[in-house]
């Protein structure tokens, strides 16, 4: 093992992969450990490594974003690798250390960090199961659960470096509000000490006491008792909040320049009964913000937006966030940096906490009853009468699966206006023919005969062309309806003007999560977040309890308005005949301004790929070829899924640190 096993060389033959890592010794078949740093004020987009083989094929590895100023990655160098290319920011980025490790070194790391994984790794090694061994060692040595956040943070935190960390110039004044009771004087002192130590000095604080002000507090002309402090943006603090030294510099930068933010927020950490935990927040997600108030603190709202949305001083932080979100900020910016250690939440002693359900309902967003300061879900209305929905089911043989799926649609679904289009891809089982003969007597059913090689995208497109509904639902033949309201829940979302694809909560037969939204970049290309977790898993920040924005959803159960599906040309049957077609559709819809939404109100069982079986041999080669096309088309999104934090691992099924 070498402390510096690689040097950096320039490359000019690819606009993204502008540099190469040149190992001092043969690297193929070994493991590469990289430590790298980035300007704290640069966007921490994930770096990308490309391992190129002699035959011109390659394998990509997505690295974590350096959200603490520094990051660490540990992964295998595939056999046959001849070149290692790097896509990373052109400025403010540096490799601090590069080491080549043997498999024995990786086993030792595995034994030290996750000893329970060692027997699994040894068993896979003896079986020569290289793919599973690689994944086991990657997870054991390079991924940490959220419970290990303090260790993860200590390994990655970097001291401020004036030569590397360049705050943008011309940062504006910020206005802050801190309300406190006399009994909270010590907590206020901690908050003020952090505020007075900020590198950004142009701020004003309205310190509002609910009772007599305690003696002995630091005096500063920027601190006053006005209820509306001067500044281009306004934000709340809570007694005990401790801002990072450069927190206000980051936040002020969001409101500078020619396109200042209307709203900006950053990550935080908080003390919990289980210890210090991070709150790593997704990119701007209005639905999630309205239902969970996930931006929390630190949060600043532009003074112009605060005035336009009708917020009044004295109504509290939650009212500010809710009013600003309902007003629809044109430029909402997430700063993926941990900028504040927040004080524990507590009921507002003056009753300033907003009744979110009532507030949303009065603003035209009916909501479910409040729970723990947040609403369960927004209740989007259905038109009266509801529109016709066309459910399109591609299938071949497997009558026992198809019968369950069709029965669920026709008889177990409480939606009054639907049709079913079954697209048959050359079934030969007589039992399937018998089912078709039975269903043809139902005027809601249409059966298309489409024999030939399996091309899921073309089968779906043909089914859509033969359908009549204003809303389309793509449904696999191995999906089982569990609750009668699933279709209404999806149609409510699909009819919203700004929504494109809508996905359902799909469960394996054992009741665990199969689909809760797709993360672009997970597994290197795209994957299902929190797959195989218990069905009631709330997800980070509670997002699996409510409908929320995601990068994509699976076509195993996907709803979309016909006009939007047609506007992007349907599924891409040439580039993605079998796999990645659904995520590609979602991203093309997103490029037109239509957001994908996942809802937990539509719950179905999905016996995933039972009818097709796993991808092996030629099927695996076809899968990899489609995956490469997907990665080429959507490289920028793979490196920065807006709804998945850059500190989260893409090696596991999500929400662990890397």
UniProtKB/TrEMBL annotation:
Limits of the Glycosyltransferase 2-like domain: 390-506
Gene Ontology molecular functions: transferase activity
Pfam families: Glycos_transf_2
InterPro entries: Glyco_trans_2-like, Nucleotide-diphossugar_trans
Chain segments annotated as transmembrane: none
UniProt protein name: Glycosyl transferase
SUPFAM superfamilies: Nucleotide-diphospho-sugar transferases
Alphabetically ordered keywords of this record: Transferase
């Amino acid at each position: 093992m070498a402390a510096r096993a690689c040097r950096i060389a320039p490359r000019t033959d690819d606009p993204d992969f502008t540099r190469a890592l040149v190992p001092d010794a043969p690297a193929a078949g070994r493991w590469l450990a990289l430590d790298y740093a980035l300007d704290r004020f640069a966007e921490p987009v994930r770096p990308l490594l490309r391992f190129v083989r002699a035959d011109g094929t390659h394998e990509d590895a997505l690295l974590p974003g350096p959200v603490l100023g520094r990051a660490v990655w540990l992964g295998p160098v595939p056999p046959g690798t001849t070149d290692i290319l790097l896509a990373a920011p052109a400025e403010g980025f540096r490799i601090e250390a590069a080491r080549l490790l043997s498999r024995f070194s990786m086993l030792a790391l595995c034994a030290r960090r996750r000893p329970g994984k060692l027997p699994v790794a040894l068993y896979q090694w003896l079986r020569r199961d290289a793919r599973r061994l690689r994944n086991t060692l990657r997870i054991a040595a390079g991924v940490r659960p959220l419970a290990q956040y303090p260790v993860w943070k200590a390994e990655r935190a970097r001291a401020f470096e004036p030569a590397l960390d360049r705050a943008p110039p011309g940062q504006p004044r910020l206005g802050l509000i801190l309300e406190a009771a006399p009994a909270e004087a010590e907590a206020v002192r901690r908050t003020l000490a952090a505020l007075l130590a900020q590198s950004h000095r142009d701020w004003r604080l309205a310190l509002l006491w609910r009772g007599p002000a305690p003696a002995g507090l630091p005096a500063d002309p920027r601190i006053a008792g006005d209820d509306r402090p001067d500044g281009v943006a306004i934000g709340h603090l809570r007694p005990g909040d401790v801002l990072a030294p450069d927190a206000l510099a980051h936040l002020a930068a969001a409101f500078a320049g020619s396109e200042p933010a209307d709203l900006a927020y950053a990550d935080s950490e908080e003390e919990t009964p289980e210890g210090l935990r991070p709150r790593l927040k997704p990119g701007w997600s209005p639905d999630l913000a309205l239902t969970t108030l996930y931006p929390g603190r630190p949060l600043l709202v532009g003074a112009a937006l605060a005035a336009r949305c009708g917020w009044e001083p004295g109504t509290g932080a939650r009212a500010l966030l809710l009013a600003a979100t309902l007003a629809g900020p044109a430029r909402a910016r997430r700063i993926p940096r941990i900028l504040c250690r927040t004080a524990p939440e507590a009921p507002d002693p003056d009753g300033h906490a907003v009744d979110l359900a009532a507030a949303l309902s009065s603003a035209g967003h009916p909501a479910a009853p409040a729970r723990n300061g947040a609403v369960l879900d927004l209740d989007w209305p259905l038109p009266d009468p509801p529109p016709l929905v066309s459910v399109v089911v591609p299938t071949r043989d497997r009558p026992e699966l198809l019968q369950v799926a069709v029965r669920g649609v026709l008889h177990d679904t409480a939606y009054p206006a639907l049709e079913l289009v079954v697209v048959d891809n050359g079934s030969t089982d007589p039992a399937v023919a018998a089912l078709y003969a039975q269903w043809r007597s139902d005027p809601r059913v249409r059966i298309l005969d489409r024999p030939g090689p399996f091309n899921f995208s073309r089968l779906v497109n043909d089914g859509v062309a033969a359908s009549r509904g204003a809303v389309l639902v793509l449904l696999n033949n191995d999906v089982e309806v569990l609750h009668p309201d699933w279709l209404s829940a999806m149609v409510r979302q699909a009819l919203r003007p700004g929504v494109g694809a809508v996905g359902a909560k799909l469960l394996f037969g054992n009741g665990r999560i199969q689909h809760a939204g797709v993360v672009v970049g997970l597994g290197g290309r795209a994957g299902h977040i929190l797959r195989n977790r218990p069905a009631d898993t709330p997800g980070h920040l509670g997002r699996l309890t409510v409908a929320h924005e995601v990068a994509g959803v699976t076509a195993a159960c996907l709803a979309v308005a016909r006009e939007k599906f047609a506007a992007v040309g349907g599924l891409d049957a040439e580039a993605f005949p079998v796999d990645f077609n659904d995520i590609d559709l979602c991203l093309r819809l997103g490029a037109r301004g239509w957001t994908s939404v996942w809802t937990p109100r539509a719950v179905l069982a999905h016996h995933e790929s039972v009818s097709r079986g796993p991808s092996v041999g030629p099927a695996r080669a076809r899968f990899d070829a489609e995956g490469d096309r997907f990665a080429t088309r959507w490289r920028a999104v793979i490196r920065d899924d807006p709804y998945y934090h850059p500190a989260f691992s893409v090696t596991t099924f999500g929400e662990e640190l890397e």
